[in-house]
Design brief:
This protein is α/β, with parallel strands linked by helices and about 200 residues long. It contains 10 helices and 5 strands, in the order E-H-E-H-H-H-H-E-H-E-H-H-H-E-H. The radius of gyration is 18 Å and the shape is globular.
Length: about 200
Amino acid sequence: MLRVGLTGGVASGKSTISRIFESLDVPVIDTDAIAREIVAPGSPLLAEVFRIFGDDLRLPDGSLDRAALRRRVFDDPGLRRRLEAITHPAIDALVQQRLAALPEATPYALLVVPLLVEAGWQDRVDRVLLVDCPETLQVRRLVERDGIDAAAAWRMVHSQTSREARRRAADDVIDNDGDLDLAGLEDAVRRLDKRYRHGDG
């Protein structure tokens, strides 16, 4: 089974592209969704996060204030590495478990890994599919989507690996720079889907 890693910078369009693949009955394993799952209320990992990063991150319903945690580790590489040391092994284990559970005849699966390049996950996939767009467009989308100011949006963009590094790591690229409407993106995904189903790189 071919493993395709879908990645891209923040607000580049990964969710849109993964939904199109899903509509074509492609198994999609989203590491962001798994990251939320492993710190569900009552989980041992959530207790560990509270112990290390502070019980003030606990919301009234017992869940994790993910936005506050992101802010806490955002400007502190040491804290971010501690968080990754806790969460990445658990995410990796669930990804492998879900891949192993897919039917043997499945031609390929899509792994959505936003920080694929940063985490060095290239060796966990057979191909890297990048959704790419200019940083100025990422910032505009973040401002509109999250209601933050441009300075905060630029900090988010620059906290990730460079656009050039992602393009160097990519085997396939979908340019989501605004020139393609939804129908154009669907066409691009269908062309890739046809190749991946035939095992073509």
